[in-house]
Amino acid sequence: MVILKHYAWLIALAVFAVWSSAQIVLWPESIQNLVVFFPYVTVALGIFIALWLNRIQPVLILLSLGCFNAILFYFSSYALGVELTKETLFPVLIFLLPFNILLWILLPEKGVFNKRLNTLVLLVFLVEATIIYWALNDVPEAWLALLNTPMIKSSDIIMLSFSTGLMFLLTLFFIVLKMNQSSFKILYHAVFMVLVLMLYGVNQGFELSVLAWFSAFSAIVLTLSMIFEAHHIAYTDELTGIQGRRALMEYFLGMGKKYTVAMVDIDHFKKFNDTYGHDVGDEVLRRVASVLDGVKEGRAFRYGGEEFTLVFANKELEEVMAELEYIRRKVESGIIEFKTGIHSIKTHVTISIGAAESDESFKAQEVLKFADQALYEAKLAGRNQVVKGNYSPSKVQINQYKGSKNDRKSSGTSRSR
Fold this sequence. Notes:
Elements: H1 2-21, H2 29-35, H3 38-52, H4 56-79, H5 82-106, H6 115-137, H7 141-147, H8 162-181, H9 186-203, H10 208-235, H11 245-253, E1 259-266, H12 269-276, H13 278-293, E2 299-304, E3 307-313, H14 317-333, E4 336-340, E5 343-347, E6 351-357, H15 364-380, E7 385-389, E8 396-402
Helix pairs in contact: 1-9, 1-10, 3-4, 3-10, 4-5, 4-10, 5-6, 5-8, 5-9, 8-9, 9-10, 12-13
């Protein structure tokens, strides 16, 4: 769901960039002349935000986009003229652009103040500057002809050279690998879209305004990805992948008057951690969070430690009791297998749940407290059961849905209350 949400704005921006690029020739000449300066504004803004967030990868990709446009504009307008820039410099730059993006993505993210990484980056730019200087002065014609060999001869649709097309495809391939091998990072998906945009722009040929337009939108995509990723990190629990306590508190701000809150706690979690180690405990948290995240008509949040919160908007307490019991049973029936030394251990965990519904006279924090009080009663009553709470902490009913005596002998995990 999160990936689809981000691809919605990525695709929308890409479609708009492609559509609007075809309209540039219809604009007044004075505006067309300004388009070539558009990337510098968006790149500068993006670099400012990346520096603020201490992110070196976006800084380097944005620098590559900015340098790509600056070099083309300078040499075509002042140094070499359009023809020589188009025939000699352009083929080299459109090969180096995806190469640079690939290199910066493969480099580890170590912040903007890492001296060794910055030295390496400076060395790469110096080598590339030497290559560009050599290409403009001493490159053999045979090499240049090879660099310009078309991917498909006499095609009006694919006008890329073989070398450029291969480098773009190779970079796209490695970006897809990065997306699949790591946890969700918006930046990787944004870079994928940047490559698609620049590939489309480069395929149009040597058109400064078109290249500048797509470079500017690529910078916008990268900038937005950093902002959204910062938001994602702030509101999402890194271990379990579900939203955290801050997101829960903000979710309550937009709630109506009618809702139900359930507090969920993993039984005997501290004992489980002490016995089998924190790595196994982390896996338990992920397993339970995965089950809770699949709750019907509700949203799951990690409240803290081994405690989670479920919120059911526009639902009364009685309407969600069956779903809470279903979740309790699903967690209980799950088998967790892990190794300690040479031994393989199979076990399961159980959860206790306390639930309370809203009332016009209570704030969200108070409803949370009633649910927490019901959870406390579930612990006292033997754990591994669902308890529903009334508006007075002294009036708590143990729901008819509760595990048997054998159920209560949990081999699982939660704090001791």
